[in-house]
Amino acid sequence: MAEYNFEYFTVRFPIDHQYVAHVEINRPDRLNAFVEAMWLNLAQIFNKLSSDPSVRSIVLSGAGEKAFTAGLDVKAASEGMLSSETKNDPARKAALLRRHISEFQDCITAVERCEKPVVVALHGFSLGLAIDLATATDVRVCAKDTRFAVKEVDIGLAADIGTLSRLPKVVGNYGWVKEVALTAREFGAEEALRVGFVNAVYDNRQATIAAAFKMASLIAKKSPVAVQGTKEILNYSRDHSVQDGLRYTSVWNSAALQTQDVSAALLSGLKKRTPTFEKL
């Protein structure tokens, strides 16, 4: 098992949930608000989990009762990348900002790019960057106390880390997305469920995390060849035409169908027993 030691994240591998990793944002004294070291750590963690053969699915949650994450640590950002002080001319400052934003985007995309399915358990304040991060996961569940908002217009910028690109594809409702993005208004768990942003709502943080583990454990029992292929093809097909998706699937499965997992799954079904699969 690879080592996962990070200042602002706790990574666990619960013995009662085989092949499931638990990644917890761990800055509860600041409502899990993100500073630069955190998004860099996030990418490192999910890049490692992506290739860790002992992991088949991942649960992502936030420590503390108050927030999954309140978003970007605005105070730290105002002293860093959002600082108005500069000795560079506008074109050079723009080049630096573009590189910085691209790096930040890639750190969040690391969650989507991770080969293993990610189930996020949201609760409490889930603002700004929380939406960026949640839309990069595969399945979203939340507690009934969750307060969501695309907050970026309230701090004078357009959301630039993924929400405006991914959220419309998650909910399939551009009118609703434009409303919440342009107004920065809060919306709750029931509205998130109604528009399809989350899959289910639970009573509290503990129940939400338990439900996320139940789902992640079910995924982890399946063939990792099948599961990782399914995530890859779904993400590819979301951004391409049906014909492109079919072509990509045929190329992908021309290799993947040669796995022994197919016969193991079929025989287990016939013999009414639970199949086991090798690490990938």
Automatic annotation (TrEMBL):
Example GO CC term: the record gives: mitochondrion
Q: What are the recorded Gene Ontology BP terms?
A: fatty acid beta-oxidation
Specify the domain of life of the species encoding this protein.
Eukaryota
Give UniProt keywords alphabetically. Acetylation, Fatty acid metabolism, Isomerase, Lipid metabolism, Peroxisome
What is this protein's record name?
Enoyl-CoA hydratase
Q: Where does this protein act, in terms of pathway?
A: Lipid metabolism; fatty acid beta-oxidation
Q: Which SUPFAM superfamilies match?
A: ClpP/crotonase (SSF52096)
Q: Tell me where in or outside the cell this protein is found.
A: Peroxisome
The record's similarity note reads: Belongs to the enoyl-CoA hydratase/isomerase family.
Select a single GO molecular function from the record's annotations and give it: delta(3,5)-delta(2,4)-dienoyl-CoA isomerase activity
Which InterPro entries does UniProt cross-reference here? Answer: ClpP/crotonase-like_dom_sf (IPR029045), Ech1-like (IPR045002), Enoyl-CoA_hydra/iso (IPR001753), Enoyl-CoA_hydra_C (IPR014748)
Chief location category: other
